[in-house]
Write a structure and sequence with these properties.
This protein is an alpha+beta fold. The protein has one domain. 18% of the residues lie in helices and 37% in strands. Strands 3, 4, 7, 8, 9, 12, 14 and 15 form an eight-stranded mixed β-sheet that branches. A five-stranded antiparallel β-sheet has the order 1-17-5-11-10, with no helix packed on it. A hairpin with a 2-residue loop joins strand 10 and strand 11. The radius of gyration is 31 Å and the shape is elongated. The termini are far apart.
Length: 264
């Protein structure tokens, strides 16, 4: 009876361990670097930030309901340096997968800069884009153009992917150097315990290795076209004005004579 009781206890212990939430396995850094997606023909790379890869990355995932506390998002800034703005048509990101999973879709938002952080309202917002995937790196073709005037802008990325079923986590790869403002990250439910429930620097949040300031990405599309010039209103110099007055006077005199002739 004692051995039977011990066996029951062991089985119960194993069952208890198996019942532990998978969230205990969630981590806030990739520990691996991704591969830069290849450029596609017929589109121009307007901004490229893929150098100095750190070999790490931060979570940027929209999980299933059971792990909503871990939903997180990353963003990084870039400068539109063309006077007539950019027509953004594609975003490419470098990333990794923890368990060889794949994303269901990706959300992309473009925010104006607000004192070195993303503004509150997106200028362009895209939900549920199915990207072309390569081991966690994405080529994201926007369904409609995003027209951005000159200035600093932020691109925010969130990957929709279930953690269960062997899919694991997705990470947006980062770099050891910084361009413009440092990349930012947020985890509204604070499941990772960083305290970054709103946008804060990736380095402040301690994610993606804790020391790597920027994400890896490419913005592609076309340069903006200048607006058409305003319609030219013809102007008259003194000679032209006198000629016009003479023409009007002659026309009036002709009309008066015709009227007098018809009355006589």
């Amino acid at each position: 009876m004692r051995r039977r009781g011990e066996a029951v206890f062991v089985l119960a212990l194993v069952a208890g361990l198996l019942a532990l939430p998978a969230s205990a396995q969630l981590v806030n850094q990739a520990g691996a670097g991704g591969v830069v997606p290849a450029p596609e023909g017929g589109i121009t790379d307007l901004y490229v930030q893929t150098d100095n890869a750190s070999g790490n990355g931060a979570p940027d995932q929209n999980f299933e309901a059971a792990y909503n506390a871990y939903d997180s998002e990353g963003a990084d800034d870039f400068e539109v340096d063309w006077p007539d703005g950019w027509v953004v048509q594609q975003v490419r990101t470098v990333g990794t997968q923890s368990a060889g999973g794949s994303a269901t879709s990706v959300d992309v938002n473009f925010y104006p800069d607000n004192a070195g952080f993303p503004g509150n309202t997106a200028a362009c917002s895209y939900a549920g884009i199915v990207p072309t995937q390569a081991a966690g790196s994405f080529t994201i073709d926007l369904p409609t153009d995003c027209n951005l005037p000159a200035g600093f802008w932020w691109v925010a990325i969130q990957t929709t992917q279930t953690f269960g079923g062997g899919n694991g986590q997705h990470f947006w790869s980062n770099r050891t150097s910084q361009s413009n403002q440092g990349g930012v990250w947020r985890n509204p439910g604070d499941g990772f315990g960083s305290g970054c429930t709103d946008w804060d620097r990736m380095t402040t949040c301690g994610v993606g290795g804790g020391t790597n300031p920027d994400f890896l990405f490419v913005i592609a599309g076309e340069l903006g076209v200048p607006p058409p010039p305003p319609a030219v209103v013809p102007t008259l110099d003194v000679v032209g004005l006198l000629a016009l007055m003479a023409l009007l006077a002659g026309t009036a005199l002709f009309v008066m004579r015709r009227r007098q002739s018809s009355e006589g």
